[in-house]
Design brief:
This protein is α/β, with parallel strands linked by helices. It has 2 domains: 3-65; 74-245, Rossmann fold (3-Layer(aba) Sandwich). 55% of the residues lie in helices and 11% in strands. The protein has a 5-stranded parallel beta sheet. It is elongated. The chain has helices spanning 3-15, 19-32, 39-66, 87-94, 97-100, 115-128, 138-150, 154-161, 181-192, 209-213, 216-228, 240-247; strands at 104-108, 133-137, 166-172, 197-202, 230-234.
Length: 256
Amino acid sequence: MSAAALDILKTQIEELGLTFTLGNIDTFLHEQATSERSLVETLSLLFDHEITQRRQRAAKARLKMSGLPAVKVLEEFDTAHAEGISRKKLNELSTLSFVYRKENVVFMGPSGLGKTHLLYALCYQACMNGLTAYHITGHELMETLKKAKLQNRLTRKIRALCKPKILAIDEIGYQNLTREEAPLFFQLVAERYEKGSIIVTTNKTFGQWGELMGENAIATATLDRLLHHAQVIVLKGESYRLKNRMKLGLVTPLQQ
């Protein structure tokens, strides 16, 4: 191929917006010069590189927008430590079929059993597979909704929180909601009801949500929508963190 023809080809590739192909074209043409592949196979390889790179860039963008503090994967979760979830169940969750069915997932149990790990991992899995996710702690969520209400932007904020395919709310229950916060949380759950998935981690049983939300009626209404289409996974066992500290002699085991 002449230099002039190559320049024209590069200009055409640039006009088509094939950024990754443009950056790889010289190397690609050099490798293909001695290849015995057909024209169709050659073009397929060229476009496959562009598609792969675009998907990876999009996945990174989704991951950044998710607000995840850390990357976790389901394969690293130790099912032998936490009772209540099996490897088979993790494999089922990894398909993200619950997202397509607009179902919720609730991870319930005491601190230190990996609930947050599972939440992070499902959000990461979603981002890597073309789905949007947004992570926020329960405390951050309440502060965000209260601020939006004060600024007369509550409807807009709730609408924004309904856009991701997954809304992941970590650590619900570590602090009771105020009379102002409980209706805001209900409003968000009601707005996402049957429209998008919510993943929640909580240390409270559902029987304790009346106390958590300050009123049985609003707790019942919230749970009614949260649990109607939901998978509830109750984790049991010893805290990972306390167990490791006890091994090192940093924490004295609690007396029974």
